[in-house]
Design goal:
Length: about 325
Amino acid sequence: MPGAIYAEGLVKTFGDVRALDGVDLDVPEGTVLGLLGPNGAGKTTTVRVLTTLLRPDSGRAVVAGIDVLAHPHQVRRSIGLSGQFAAVDEYLTGRENLRMVGRLYQMSARDAKRRADELLERFNLADAADRIAKTYSGGMRRRLDLAAALVVSPPVMFMDEPTTGLDPRNRQALWEVIEELVSGGTTLLLTTQYLEEADRLAHDIAVVDHGKVIARGTSDQLKARIGGERIEVIVHDRDTIRTAEEILRGLGRGAVAVEEHTRKLTVPVVGGAKLLAEAIRELDGRGVEIDDVGLRRPTLDDVFISLTGHAAEEAAGGDENTEGTRETTGRKERVK
Ligand SMILES: Nc1ncnc2c1ncn2[C@@H]1O[C@H](COP(=O)(O)OP(=O)(O)OP(=O)(O)O)[C@@H](O)[C@H]1O
Ligand SMILES: [Mg+2]
């Protein structure tokens, strides 16, 4: 029995670009899937296919139990979508925009008003509610668009980078709204660039790159896969990098990444705080002066670089000492 969102072998090409290259997904009902990946990975294209806005070249998709290609109209009635770029009517006020959505979904005028007021409050838009959306800032539009997607609570929701461009307070507010929605039984597919966000909201994460799902699991599983916590050290003198590298290699579980120009060394570790103390002692004992040292959890960058760097490592033959350089190179290639 497929989940509330199911995709199998989705392929979509735009000229030479293979935007989707065989995407498989399965999201159990009432759970949140976080779709992570760099720019151009195929996240929006996946969302567009699943929400009936784009026909794939091949593959199959089922949303809320309905075949997306065979019955797009029916699918549309069961889903909500908040796109990457806000789709609000510029010439209506915030309040009018939300009421209009309610009316489109056949709410009574009274219910539509009540829901609009509630959401305006929720998304900190009450003060601006009666200004036309054209005068809103980017973050305000974003919030209005999200509020519009939440006027009705469909069983399956899609949100494409919902918190990009939101300030911390509003991001927090949105997370709370999403959590409420999901505890009410909604299934959600959310794309994001922030591991922190996926961490907090997603039951499962799928990492996409070049139109393919390259890794899947819970946030903890993905982090464990790349080595849990990291010790990060910035040494004072360039001349001591090699010594520091040797010490960290002895303590860590994996290659030491070295960034020569910033004099920064990073190594994955297991058993954080104790090892951190040990690292400081050893560095001190061997006369390595430290500018900065700390323990940190992996970021999306770490997960991503590590996951994609893997192929590069195999291709390059896997020399440990060039790991840092290669990781950096791999990343730069991805920045558009
Ligand atoms: N309508 C289109 N015409 C041509 N190429 C497209 C079109 N839509 C997407 N692409 C290409 O498909 C690839 C995947 O794009 P997509 O928008 O799905 O990426 P994304 O993961 O959402 O990226 P971002 O993080 O930047 O939003 C990119 O190379 C993009 O240029
Ligand atoms: Mg996108």
